[in-house]
Every structure is written in C-alpha cells, then in structure tokens.
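Hi P.,

Sorry for the delay on this. The queue was packed all week, but I finally got your sequence through. Input first:
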Amino acid sequence: MQIQAFYGFQELKLSWDYASALSMVMKENSFQSDNGMSAFSKAFQTNLESFDYYYQKEPERGRRFSLAMTPFTVSYASSLTLYPFQDLRPGALVVDVGGGSGHVSSEIAKANPHLNFVVQDYEEPISLGRATYKESGLPIEWQVHNAFQTQPVKGADVYFMRRVLHDHSDTVAADVLRMTAGAMDNASRILIEDMIAPDLYGEDSDWFTNQADIVMMMMHNAKERTLAQWDALVKKADERLKIVKVWNGAGDFKGNSAIIEVTLNL
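Then the structure:
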C-alpha cells in the first residue's frame, strides 16, 4: 500500500499544476482533441501525452503508476460480475488491450479457467505483469503492443478495453477502435468497460463521475462519455461497429461501471 499512497501523494501535488494550466490550455487551444495539448502537457512543458511522458521521460513514475493501478482490481470488481465471461466457449481468447500488468485479466482467468488471455500494453507494465504472474500457471500471454497500431491478434473472441478509452479524445479513441475492428471477425466482440456519464449533470449525477470527467480533461483532453457519446464514438471509428448491449452495474457500481458490448457487421 505504501507505493500506492506515495504515488497518490505525488500526483495530488502535481494535479495543482494541471489545474492551474487548464484555463490557459482551453484559452489557447479551444479544447483541442490532441492528447499532447492537454493541461498535463502544458504543466510538464511537453508535447507528449501523459502515458508516453511517464514511460519515456520518467520511467520511475511510470513504474509507480503501473503498481498503483493494481488495487483497482478490488475497487472495481465489476469486471468479474458485469459480463458473463463464464458463458464464453472453452478455449475462447480474450485480448486485454491496454491491460496494464494484467491485474484484471488474472482475476478473470482465475474465475474462468476455460479462457485464454493476451495482455497488451507498454513494455513497463508488461514486464511487471510477466514477473508478477510468472509462477501463477494462468493461461496469459504477455505482449508489448501500441494500441494505435495494427492489432496483431486476429479473430479473438473478445477484445477487452477496461478504463482505456476514457483516457483519450474522440479522435484518438476512434483510432484505437478502428485498429481493433480491423482484426475482428464475425464472432468477435469488443467489450468496453468504462463509465457511462448521465445525459444531464444535476441531482442524478455523482461526484465520482464528475471528478473523473475533469481529471480526464486535465490529463488527456478526454472525457467521461454519455451512452449517446459512446454510440457516436463507435460509429466514428467504423460504421460497421454497433453497440448490441450495455451491461450495467448495480449498487456502488451503477453509473461508475458498465460494459458496452460492440460487434462488427461484416
């Protein structure tokens, strides 16, 4: 827990810099979709988006970030309960796009031993995951992959994107979906686990979603999306993509977690 607490304290201090830069960025750039023109980029005086900056310029910060994401397996157990992974065919392949160190895929694999997994991300979190789960015996393959490039795993049963697309503007997120669509076949689906923001911010909205929306704007020029915005994003990426079902959370997860199931009409 010490690494998570330290990471949180460091980022809390830096968030003051992001916040102070936000108004300047919005005035200068009119909320451009380029991730490298965010308040984060302004505060750090870089044209890199935050993840590229972490892993390229400050690898120790990137390492702390990878470690800090692990507790979210507990905080967001929705991945294990929202979608019926148990109903996937024996031997089904799940590609965890931007899956970090595999902390979520490992939990799904433990609960569903009939599935196989490929976890994709930057080299740092992949190395961490490979070392962490080396002796686990779990059916996980580790793959360094840039989600903005051609998806190398073709025809997987599931392409899982958990807390990935909300880190990116519509333009950039559409690129990720487009690359994934190019690898899909008739039986493939994309599972997007993310927040679904309320259509109107008011009494029915919650503080966590509102806060996350502001953080995404400061860090990535991104946002938390309403269902209509998710639908528009999917269509922007590829007109053949279609939302077929939304698996909503309940209780503490309601609103803060949903899995959006997307298929490709070939």
